[in-house]
User: Which sequence fits this backbone?
């Protein structure tokens, strides 16, 4: 069973409860709870979790594990749920994908200057018609920009930057008078910057592989653990 908070189209807070059937790996939405006006404390979330587990039991469905994200209130809820369900053979744990995304964000935070420079270059080629036309003429890829709500999007942007780099460098070499100086300096004159981007991309790629593995609907706990060994070792 998994529990997570969402907002509906009216921006009202909703908790969604899903279960994944062990054999078929099919996912079923079992409940949605409108939490308008309710503080999402550990105790409140624990009560919802207990009721959700009872509801599944009424359908002759045994909940053997319970997963949430790693927000502080969810961590508190899992701790209280463990005490309430002591002896019931229910494993509680935090979402590995969410943990890996938080880890990636920490890695990015220490390299924020790289991210901002890459974004500036990609925005220039994406939104400057002449530069985009030249990039397309050379067979370059459409520039990508990172999104805060899309996991691994910065990794994809860095890959896009590195793939386009030779073509962007060619364009800047031939059209120096038409290109802003800071873009020229980033692409052509600062080779060390490209090496730093390559290094950050390599680190984020390892996290992305583990994250994508853990997001698969049929990922087991053993596969999740294996993905962490792959990343850390």
Assistant:
């Amino acid at each position: 069973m998994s529990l997570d908070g969402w907002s509906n189209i009216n921006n009202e807070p909703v908790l969604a409860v899903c279960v994944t059937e062990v054999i078929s790996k099919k996912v079923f939405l079992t409940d949605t709870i409108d939490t308008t006006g309710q503080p999402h404390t550990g105790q409140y979330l624990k009560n919802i979790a207990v009721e959700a587990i009872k509801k599944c039991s009424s359908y002759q469905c045994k909940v053997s594990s319970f997963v949430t994200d790693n927000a502080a209130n969810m961590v508190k809820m899992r701790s209280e749920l463990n005490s309430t369900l002591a002896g019931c053979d229910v494993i509680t744990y935090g979402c590995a994908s969410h943990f890996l995304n938080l880890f990636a964000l920490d890695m990015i935070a220490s390299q924020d200057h790289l991210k901002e420079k890459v974004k500036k270059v990609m925005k220039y080629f994406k939104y400057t018609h002449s530069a985009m036309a030249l990039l397309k003429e050379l067979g370059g890829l459409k520039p990508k920009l990172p999104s805060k709500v899309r996991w691994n999007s910065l990794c994809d942007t860095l890959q896009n930057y590195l793939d386009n780099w030779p073509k962007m460098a060619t364009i800047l070499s031939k059209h120096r008078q038409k290109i802003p100086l800071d873009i020229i300096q980033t692409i052509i004159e600062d080779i060390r910057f490209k090496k730093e981007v390559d290094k950050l991309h390599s680190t984020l790629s390892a996290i992305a592989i583990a994250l994508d593995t853990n997001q698969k609907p049929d990922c087991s706990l053993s596969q999740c653990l294996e993905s962490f060994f792959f990343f850390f070792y």
Observations:
- The two ends are 30 Å apart (CA to CA).
- Strands lie at 2-7, 13-20, 27-34, 65-68, 91-94.
